[in-house]
Amino acid sequence: MAKKASAINGSPRKGWNTAILLEKALEGAKAAGAxxxxxxxxxxxxxxxxxxxxxxxxxxxxxxxxxxxGLAPVLKKIHAxxxxxxxxxxxxxxxxxxxxxxxxxxxxxxxxxxxAPSSFGKKIGAAFIYTMNVGADxxxxxxxxxxxxxxxxxxxxxxxxxxxxxxTETLQFDDYGKYAASAFDAAQRAERRKTVFVDDxxxxxxxxxxxxx
Length: 213
Description:
This protein is an alpha/beta fold. The chain has helices at residues 17-31, 72-79, 97-107, 144-159, 186-194, 196-212, and strands spanning 4-9, 35-40, 83-89, 125-131, 163-167. It is built from six helices and five strands.
């Protein structure tokens, strides 16, 4: 039976930086023999954790959050997958609100309040892909790297494996001239799209392969 790889797009844009890198990662997973599926969170009607604590009641044996909304079928598929790749742009120093709400719903049922360690019930390959405006040299200074490391630690603790891919100084617009965005060098961003981002795509492909192999 072929392995299954799922990718979660936490960006509202379905054809831009985050989505492209997730698609490349899935291409890598497919090249390694996996069946793949991409989900866009902005297509779904759901909310974050509502603190019902159903997953923490004594005797509870849950495979996912008990809330039955647009996210429920996605969570069910994730529980059956062998590799999971999350992706989000950085908005005001963190992942998008949709991605944060998704992470609450995905991880909280498996975050143990007991003395037993937190566990998804099996180990799967997992990674997070981030896209952002800032340069790589600013990640430590503004505290992004610490957040990325913490999330990787969460993947490792609950899913059994965690990796991180960071794409910096990404292209935001096809035509910067249409927007009030003089803080950015449009020519430099366009050049990075043709060079550095291409390398990021190759890294995403290799990531997808690695997670299922």
